[in-house]
Specification:
- By secondary structure, the protein is an alpha/beta fold.
- It is about 55% helix and about 10% strand.
- The strands form two sheets. Strands 1, 2, 3, 4, 5, 6, 7 and 8 form an eight-stranded mixed beta sheet that branches.
- The chain folds into two domains: about 290 residues, Glycerol-3-phosphate (1)-acyltransferase, CATH 3.40.1130; about 100 residues, Arc Repressor Mutant, subunit A (Orthogonal Bundle), CATH 1.10.10.
Length: about 450
């Protein structure tokens, strides 16, 4: 027992290394994880005291535990068996396929990342790019929702800035879990987005097994009280108008809802509009080609963000106009009754988004120039003023007292981009820019009654 044993130096170092790893994994790391977990729980408890809708335990569960719970769910297990039988593969292969889908979908929410880094970045970026306006009734709409209900924000999709705006505006009340597409799977963006509670959705090549895993995750999150946000249009609008709704996520929510048990689900329609959509020309070009290949590079996006942040930090004017967010009338799934018809529900939600759409200056100016090209400054103000009279007061973002300033600002922003030009004292749509003008006018076309005599 006391004899000396000689070992090569490399073997001795290797033994020490294995011993250190074992000590870390069995003794030190669990203690460190427990210490930080305890601190996080205390921080979340303090945070929940100031949120109108506190973070639910489901969202704070460990990602590994959520994945295990999901793949061992009875409905998912039945689908695994069916997948193995239909594809003539062993059940353990089908099980690993389900585990892969679950790992892809389930987020790893970090309250620290969401309420410290993400919210500050969203606030800085949003205010660097736009003047943010919210409808007067937004707070009243949100406060009217029962505290024990799961809130689902249903939004129109105009720009990728939609995520930033709604995250920033909702931060003082709650945290949101977004459904995002393949664009967000690019590293390191994927890590950041998952830490903010977003879950990925494949737009194509979805098998029955994948749909079942996704459906059960959405249903579990809803029952667990996780407040969510998704875009029923399924993608960015290429024309400025609302697109027909896709009913995938909505159908999962309705199918997993039992009005007699658990929480109510309340849909909040969210209408978003812009004086300038950052991707407008990319979207218009895709519409003219008849496809949805946008060709945007992540390097361009990151470069744009960094440039705007630098301009903001050096006190330069960086904003592209106004961005506005308005909440429509909420819709309770429990009040809709057992077996609510999904198609009718989706149409109703889109109609409420359209009704709540905020009306901004640039869309008004574009509408006026489409009706009668070649308007003087006074004629443009008169045309915009008449259209304002057609639009419900709840959709107004600026008062009539500010009409002159707003119209001047709106037409000048279009002129700075060479979309309109001033010829002989009259504002005219520049050659080849009619699709851009139409793109912005479409966002409020539901409110405007075209005067045929004026348009001719």
């Amino acid at each position: 027992m006391t004899q000396t044993v000689q070992l090569p130096l490399w073997l001795f170092i290797l033994i020490l290394l294995f011993a250190a790893v074992t000590a870390l994994s069995h003794f030190l790391l669990p203690s460190v994880r427990w210490f930080f977990r305890l601190r996080l729980e205390r921080a979340v408890k303090r945070l929940n005291t100031r949120l109108k809708r506190p973070i639910e335990p489901f969202k704070l569960a460990r990602r590994y535990d959520m994945i295990q719970r999901l793949i061992y769910d009875p409905e998912v297990t039945r689908e695994i068996v069916a997948y193995a039988k239909n594809n003539n593969v062993p059940e353990n292969v089908a099980f690993e396929k389900a585990r892969h889908y679950a790992r892809e979908i389930v987020p790893s929410f970090s309250a620290f990342a969401y309420f410290s880094f993400a919210i500050r970045l969203a606030r800085l970026l949003a205010n660097s790019v736009y003047r943010i306006r919210t409808a007067e009734g937004n707070d009243a709409v949100f406060d009217s929702i029962p505290k024990d209900a799961t809130v689902v924000f249903v939004m129109n999709h105009r720009s990728n800035m939609d995520y930033v705006l709604v995250t920033y505006l909702a931060a003082r009340d709650t945290s949101l879990s977004y459904a995002v597409g393949e664009w967000a799977r690019v590293w390191p963006l994927s890590w950041l987005i998952k830490s903010l509670g977003a879950y990925f959705i494949r737009r194509t090549a979805r098998t029955a097994l994948y749909r079942k895993v996704l459906a059960r995750y959405v249903q579990m999150a809803t029952v667990g009280g996780v407040n969510q946000a998704f875009y029923p249009e399924g993608g960015l609008s290429l024309t400025g108008k609302l697109r027909p709704p896709k009913m995938g996520l909505l159908s999962y929510l309705v199918e997993g809802f039992d009005p007699e048990e658990g929480r109510d689900v309340v849909f909040v329609p969210v209408a978003i509009n812009y004086d300038r959509v950052l991707e407008d020309r990319v979207l218009i070009a895709a519409d003219q080609r008849g496809d949805r290949r946008f060709g945007a590079r992540i390097s361009v996006v990151v470069g744009f963000i960094l440039r705007k942040l630098w301009q903001r930090l050096t006190f330069q004017e960086t904003r592209f106009g106004t961005a506005a967010v308005a909440f429509g009338a909420p819709l309770s799934l429990r009040a809709s009754g057992q077996g609510a018809e999904i198609n009718a529900l989706s149409v109703e939600l889109m109609a409420r988004i359209e009704t709540a759409m905020p009306v901004l200056t640039v869309p008004l100016v574009c509408q006026a120039l489409l009706q009668k090209d070649g308007l003087s400054q006074e004629g443009l103000m008169d045309a915009v003023g008449k259209m304002m009279g057609q639009i419900p007061q709840a959709n107004h973002i600026f008062d009539m007292d500010a009409l002159e300033m707003e119209v001047t600002r709106g037409v000048q922003s279009l002129a700075d981009r060479d979309i309109v030009v001033l010829k002989n004292g009259a504002w005219t749509i520049a050659e080849g820019e009619t699709p851009v003008v139409q793109f912005y006018a479409n966002s409020i076309s539901q409110f405007i009654q075209i005067d045929a005599a004026t348009a001719s």
